[in-house]
Structures are given as C-alpha cells and as structure tokens.
Amino acid sequence: MRAQFVLSEIGVGLRRNLTMTFAVIVSVALSLALFGGSLLMSDQVNTMKGYWYDKVNVSIFLCNKSDAESDPNCAKGAVTEDQKKQILADLDKMSEGDKPVVEKVTYESQDQAYKHYKEQFGDSPLAASLTPDQMQESYRIKLKNPEKYQVVATAFDGRDGVQSVQDQKGILDNLFGLLNGMNWAARAVMALMLVVALMLIVNTVRVSAFSRRRETGIMRLVGASGFYIQAPFIMEAAVAGLIGGTVACGFLVVARYFIIDHGLALSQKLNLINFIGWDAVLTKLPLILATSLLMPALAAFFALRKYLKV
C-alpha cells in the first residue's frame, strides 16, 4: 500500500511539473553526455598515445653537399664515411648493456629518401626540381622508451656530419596537447551544464513541495515519518535524472556508431588512427546511469531539508 502510494505520487509530481521535469531531463542528458564524451576522449587520447608513441622514431639527418654550402651546422662539409661509421658504432653501443636506449637503427640512403619523397609528394611542384643528391642520408632510430629522446639528441646534435636530430614525439605532443585542451573545454561545459541541472532539480523539488504543502501537512499531522513524506519528491528527481541518463547513454552509443563505424565512418577513412572500441563505451554506461540516479536524488534530499521541514 505504501509503495503504491509513493509510486502514484511520483507520477502525479512528474505530470504536475511537466515543463520543469522536461528541462531537468534535457540538462541532465546533455551534461552526462558531455561527461561520458570527455571520458571517452581521454581514453581515445591515451589509446592514440600508446599506438603512436610506440612508433616514434628519432631521425639523425646527415649533411650533404648542398647543406655544406647553406647550413651552419654543416660548415665542415658533407658527412664522410668515417663519420657515418662512428655514428653507427655509437648507436650500437646505445643498444647494448643492461638498460639499452636504442631498440633498432635503420639507415636511409639519399636514393631511398628521394624515392620516399616522390611517393608522398610526387604531385608537388618542388618534387620535379629535386634530385637524389639533394636529399639527406639519415639514421632512423626506434627507442626503447620514447621519453629518452634527449639522450640521443645530446650525443649526436652538433657533431661533425650531423645536420640535425629530430624527434617525432615533439610533433605528437603538440597534437595531444590540442586534444587534451579540447577535452578540458568539454569538461568545463559539462561542469556548467551540471550546475544548471542541479539548480533545475532543486527548483523543481521546491515547486513540487510547495504545490503539495497541504498534503504534506496532513501527513505530518497523522504521524507519517520524514522519509515517507520525502520519498516521493526524491524519487521524482531520481526518475527524471535516470531518464536523462538513459538519453545520454543512447546519445553516446549512437555517436560512436555513426561517427566511427558508419555515417562518417572515421575508422575507415582514418586508418592511421587507432579508435577506441565498443568496450570503452559500454564500460562508461553504468557509471553514467548511476550518476544520473544518485545526483538528482541527493540534490533533492538536501533541497527538501531546507524547503520541506519534516
């Protein structure tokens, strides 16, 4: 009997404040969708870091005849065979010992560099004017730990025959910094929407309690407990929040389906990016549903302590 009464009061309260209930559902849905999206963005960035950092190379570019005429780093002339042998020997030493820095070294000749350039930029006007002897020889180094780039840079930067030492990780750090910045911006919007949702929940509970003050007064007179009086209001907020959380979960699932798998189909168009799988999405849904249920219920509970003296 009591459960039936509480459930009937929940339905009455939701219908009586239909406009505000709808506003609560929408604001909760948007804030939790942004919350889930920010979590998935963090997972995506971490997945990309693990994928790309594992492929990071450090490149030691060697001086050629053209560099000797124009680049201050190559003022002593093009790299010699002895200098190349010494560089390779030093790299071999870095791959030995208990804590090796270098995992693999690949040599790229001028002809190979020219071929790779033609494959990637063959349509550019500059490609037609280049010749193999203008390209740079290089050593491409895969590190055991991408964070140890500075060890290689310190050992070879400024050495005779070395034009420059470049780390691809620096380029990736800029990209991931941009993605993290976008993620924090999404979290800031999510926090703002969350505040709006909490304010709407408090106002909805306050209006609902005020509109039913006669019923709650009678219930107090007949000896109803405080929790029994508060329960319908708390559960109204919880149900509205749960509906919003369900909408947010649906939005994340639909977004993952259409953006990555179908529709935009980024997984097919951007083969170089390792996108998060469905497991990452599905593990976030219970957290979103639990938050959508508990957040409005707690907000309603504390609001009732102030606006409904029982």
Automatic annotation (TrEMBL):
Q: What does the function comment of this entry state? A: Part of the ABC transporter FtsEX involved in cellular division.
**Location of the protein in the cell:** Cell membrane
Q: What is this protein called?
A: Cell division protein FtsX
Task: Give the ABC3 transporter permease C-terminal domain ranges.
Answer: 188-306
* Assembly with partners or alone: Forms a membrane-associated complex with FtsE.
User: What kind of membrane protein is this, topologically?
Assistant: Multi-pass membrane protein
Mind telling me which Pfam families this protein's record contains?
A: FtsX, FtsX_ECD
The FtsX extracellular domain covers 56-165
Question: What phylogenetic lineage does the species belong to?
Answer: Bacteria, Bacillati, Actinomycetota, Actinomycetes, Kitasatosporales
**Which PANTHER family has this protein been placed in?**
CELL DIVISION PROTEIN FTSX
What are the entry keywords? Cell cycle, Cell division, Cell membrane, Membrane, Transmembrane, Transmembrane helix
Q: Which family does it belong to?
A: Belongs to the ABC-4 integral membrane protein family. FtsX subfamily.
- Any single GO CC term annotated in Swiss-Prot or TrEMBL for this entry: plasma membrane
* InterPro entries reported in the protein's UniProt record: ABC3_permease_C (IPR003838), FtsX (IPR004513), FtsX_actino (IPR047929), FtsX_ECD (IPR040690)
Q: Which GO terms describe its biological process?
A: cell division
Which residue ranges does UniProt annotate as crossing the membrane?
21-41, 184-205, 241-260, 281-304
